[in-house]
Design goal:
Layout (H helix, E strand, L loop, with lengths): L1 H19 L2 E4 L3 E4 L1 H4 L11 H4 L12 H18 L3 E9 L1 H8 L1 H17 L6 E6 L2 E7 L3 H21 L5 E7 L7 H30 L14
Antiparallel strand pairs: 1-2, 3-5, 3-6, 4-5
Helix pairs in contact: 5-6, 6-7
């Protein structure tokens, strides 16, 4: 009988200890005190700001990812529709990047991307938002900036990047498009217009390069259009 009562007392004592300090058992983490046991001293990751907790950045450059860029455009669209404040979307592409990667490899390409992203960052304001949208494409959102004022920013970035590329004899150039939403339009529409302008600049660059190659080509004797050898 005494043995039975001894076991009962041990069980009651063990239950009292558990109730005094609630615990939360989590796999591979041992025993962790529950929030109710700690009270105000407990800090949960869920209390962090959602944009800080879910923020995603490009590993190479540290710039915003395409996912966060799209979210940013939507948020800025709401602000633009409500307050009618100016904003400009800039899209930047390294023209000829695929050929460069094929010729010199990914390591050299990463150095170029880092240099160009650094030029974009250095000439941007703290309020501006920069993202890497693709292997060789960047997006910049310029709040409180209309399309005319954005020209100065675009030229600063272009000159800084071209200077670095030319110093390394790198046969790449920036194609840049920018646009601001007009009345009853959105930043999404402005982004589409900026991309269209960027591709237009790429096309004009290709046509200039083709015309330059045609002017510098030397006729080969014996072919049509070339003087025959005597």
């Amino acid at each position: 009988m005494s043995l039975v009562w001894s076991r009962v007392r041990r069980r009651r004592t063990k239950a009292a200890v558990v109730q005094a300090a609630p615990v939360d058992r989590q796999p591979d983490r041992g025993v962790v005190l529950s929030p109710s046991a700690i009270g105000r001293g407990y800090s949960s990751p869920a209390s962090e700001e959602p944009d800080q907790l879910g923020r995603k950045i490009d590993r190479l450059t540290g710039l915003l990812s395409p996912t966060d860029w799209n979210r940013l455009i939507v948020d800025e669209d709401v602000r633009h529709a409500r307050y009618k404040r100016p904003a400009t979307v800039v899209v930047i592409e390294l023209d000829g990047f695929d050929r460069f990667v094929g010729a010199l490899g990914q390591l050299a390409a990463d150095r170029v991307i880092l240099a160009v992203s650094d030029a974009i960052r250095r000439h941007s304001r703290k309020a501006d938002h920069i993202a890497r949208l693709g292997p060789s494409r960047f997006g910049v959102l310029l709040p409180e900036t209309d399309e005319v004022a954005a020209v100065n920013y675009v030229e600063r970035v272009r000159q800084a990047s071209d200077l670095w590329l030319e110093s390394g004899a790198i046969a790449l150039r920036l194609a840049i498009g920018w646009a601001s939403p007009v009345v009853d339009s959105s930043l999404t529409g402005a982004q589409a217009q900026a991309i269209e302008r960027m591709f237009g600049e790429m096309l004009r660059g290709a046509l200039r390069e083709h015309a330059s190659d045609a002017r510098t080509s030397v006729p080969v004797p014996g072919f049509r259009g070339a003087p025959s050898a005597v």
